[in-house]
Design brief:
By secondary structure, the chain is α/β, with parallel strands linked by helices. Helices cover about 35% and strands about 15% of the residues.
Length: about 290
């Protein structure tokens, strides 16, 4: 279960006016913001920004960017990053301690159900029984779109094997619902192709997925800059996962900081409830009740 505040009703302060007129937060709003956590499986988190560990210059830069992001969940491509399977190579976990971060192994680079399931089982062994995994089964090397049939098969196998599965998929509301029904603890629809930086191409699909979900919905793939992350959060997503948008920036540490603020701002805007879109102007200071 994940807490989702969907009310767009303005808060009311003690004198009966709305919060806009006084431009101040009520104690209840401060309390709500402080308690704005969400759960993935049996784990609770405060940061809604999840980050990857690939494509950085080195592990030192990786650590600096992740610290700037404020992320609590860090995803690791088991087929590409050493977390102990190669004793002769630098170990990412020497730079990002599992005592500080929730390590989220992922199956990036897997194109079959068999490879994805095998990779998750390897990660569980390397991490002493850790069972939270990000599943992705890709369809081809050019688009990196998910193979949804293979993804569904792998998810069913992993859930039955006791894994908590966070699953990367396309932005199809029907597939999102099916993955939730078989027991995935989070559904992660793409915003755009992996690494493309195109932002959210189908916001109404994402909105439909969010509105019908009872597990956390995290936008995964396609974010390019801070405004993309803010849009995802304003749609009501529970979080955003990104890697290339930070690691590929000219200044990754600075971009990580920007993404942190964007996710927080987008979440607050969603909770606050935006004004309706109108075709024509609406005066900020109405003439009703004026003295002339």
């Amino acid at each position: 279960m994940v807490t989702k505040w969907r009310s767009s009703t303005p808060s009311v302060v003690a004198d009966g006016t709305d919060g806009e007129s006084l431009n101040m937060a009520t104690p209840a709003e401060h309390t709500r913001a402080a308690e704005d956590t969400f759960r993935i499986g049996h784990r609770e988190f405060r940061s809604r920004l999840l980050v990857g560990t690939g494509k950085y210059r080195d592990f030192d830069q990786t650590r600096a960017a992740i610290e700037a992001s404020g992320a609590e969940i860090v995803t690791v491509a088991i087929r590409r990053t050493n977390i102990g399977q190669d004793p002769g190579e630098p170990n990412l976990l020497d730079f990002l301690s599992p005592d500080r971060y929730t390590i989220l192994p992922n199956t990036a680079g897997c194109y079959t159900t068999t490879d994805a399931v095998r990779t998750c089982r390897l990660a569980r062994e390397l991490l002493d029984g850790h069972n939270l995994m990000k599943l992705e089964v890709l369809g081809d090397e050019k688009t990196l779109f998910p193979d949804v049939t293979a993804t569904l098969e792998a998810a069913e196998t992993l859930v039955a094997d006791g894994f908590e599965v966070m699953v990367y998929t396309n932005d199809d509301p029907i597939m999102a619902r099916r993955l939730e029904e078989i027991g995935c603890v989070s559904v992660m629809p793409l915003a755009a192709p992996i690494g493309s930086g195109l932002g959210i191409r189908n916001p109404y699909n994402i909105l439909t997925i969010v509105e019908n979900a009872t597990v956390p919905i995290l936008v995964d793939a396609g974010v390019g800059t801070a405004s993309d992350a803010a849009v995802a959060m304003e749609l009501g997503c529970d979080g955003v996962l990104m890697n290339t948008a930070i690691a590929g920036a000219r200044e990754p540490v600075l971009m990580a900081s920007a993404m942190r603020k964007a996710v927080e701002a987008g979440r607050e805007a969603f909770l606050a409830g935006r004004i309706p879109r109108k075709r024509f102007a609406s005066a900020s200071s109405p003439l009703d009740g004026t003295f002339f």
